[in-house]
């Protein structure tokens, strides 16, 4: 985001020719592209010293704790709970904490980050409720298991976490799973991630639903409540389009109005739920048939 914002400004400022100032740029990277650009010269020597001290304790720590410690000491973690655990590893490397004390502190911190089962169940329930609406209303037949698989993979990818191997194995057969199995899979997948500030305030549900629908078509998505509220405040009923929710009518194979959005052009023109859109002209005008009285309007 930073590069896309500033590179065009820098090209206009420093480009010596018109072509140079208009040259397109391409960002090579993403959430899977992790490498250090530089290290803070003031703290890097201490970082290296602590990593070396941790290596000397590797036999006593064991593989799991040693790898965890190296990861936490190498770079600042995103999550507050992991930052607290990082401080404990720093104390261990500095000699002010024993291995047994580290293990006790670690267990306490990890316990505080575990997600209660009821919250994991609520996540699974809400996601399945959303996907059921898609299953009922989408213009094409969908496989709910496939949507759940997209949701789980997308959720883990969004927060840059690796999907656990056992969950990943289950995702290979997710298309054949029944509703109950899908709920348990969602619950387990969410529970493994624990309490995280980047998934607080129903962000986990929002991300899962958005990622679940990402492969349906370019225009179908889930809009989270905050975006809806912001839209209502910022646009105040002004629309680029007719402002109507539609779906395919199974009986006529036409577009059926689910509901016009209040204050939109379609609302002011009198479109109602159940009306059928019969024609869309090249100029953007529409004609529709009112099911209640059947006259054609345009």
Helicity, as a percent range: 40-55%
Count of DSSP H/I helices = 14
Q: How many strands, which pairing sense, and closed or not: the largest β-sheet? A: 5 strands, antiparallel
N-to-C SSE series? Answer: HHHHHHHHHHHHHEEHEEE
Write down the Rg.
26 Å
User: Spans with pLDDT under 50 lasting ≥5 residues?
Assistant: 292-298
Structural class: alpha+beta
- In percent, how much strand structure appears in the residues? 5-15%
What's the β-strand tally? 5
Mean pLDDT: 86
Q: Strands across the major sheet, in which order?
A: 1-2-3-4-5
Question: Total domains, how many?
Answer: 3
State the end-to-end CA separation: 44 Å
CA-based shape:
extended
In short:
The chain contains 14 helices and five strands.
Describe the structure.
Helices cover about 55% and strands about 5% of the residues. By secondary structure, the protein is of the alpha+beta class. The protein folds into 3 domains: about 45-110, no CATH class; about 115-225, no CATH class; about 240-295, Roll (Pdz3 Domain). A 5-stranded antiparallel sheet has the order 1-2-3-4-5, with no helix packed on it. Strand 1 (about 245-250) and strand 2 form a beta hairpin. Helix 3 (about 45-55) packs across helix 6. The chain is extended, with a radius of gyration of 26 Å. Mean pLDDT is about 85; it is low at about 290-298.
């Amino acid at each position: 985001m930073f590069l896309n914002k500033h590179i065009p400004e820098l090209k206009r400022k420093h480009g010596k020719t018109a072509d140079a100032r208009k040259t397109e740029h391409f960002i090579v990277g993403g959430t899977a592209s992790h490498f250090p650009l530089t290290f803070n010269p003031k703290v890097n020597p201490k970082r290296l010293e602590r990593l070396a001290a941790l290596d000397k304790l590797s036999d006593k720590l064991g593989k799991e704790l040693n790898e965890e410690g190296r990861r936490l000491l190498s770079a600042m973690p995103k999550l507050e709970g992991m930052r607290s655990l990082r401080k404990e590893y720093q104390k261990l490397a500095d000699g002010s904490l024993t291995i047994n004390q580290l293990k006790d502190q670690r267990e306490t911190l990890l316990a505080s980050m575990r997600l209660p089962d009821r919250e994991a169940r609520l996540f699974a329930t809400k996601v399945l409720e959303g996907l059921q609406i898609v299953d009922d209303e989408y213009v094409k037949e969908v496989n709910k298991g496939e949507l759940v698989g997209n949701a789980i993979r997308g959720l883990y990818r969004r927060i840059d976490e690796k999907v656990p191997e056992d969950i990943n194995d289950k995702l290979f057969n997710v298309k054949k799973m029944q509703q109950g199995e899908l709920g348990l899979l969602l619950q387990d997948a969410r529970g493994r991630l624990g309490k995280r500030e980047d998934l607080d305030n129903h962000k986990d549900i929002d991300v899962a639903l958005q990622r679940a629908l990402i492969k349906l078509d370019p225009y179908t998505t889930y809009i989270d409540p905050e975006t809806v509220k912001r839209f209502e405040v910022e646009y105040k009923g002004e629309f680029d389009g007719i402002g109507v929710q539609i779906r395919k009518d199974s009986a006529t194979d036409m577009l059926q109005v689910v509901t016009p959005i209040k204050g939109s052009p379609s609302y002011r023109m009198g479109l109602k739920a159940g009306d059928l859109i019969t024609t869309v002209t090249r100029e953007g005008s529409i004609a529709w048939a009112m099911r209640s009285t059947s006259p054609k309007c345009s």
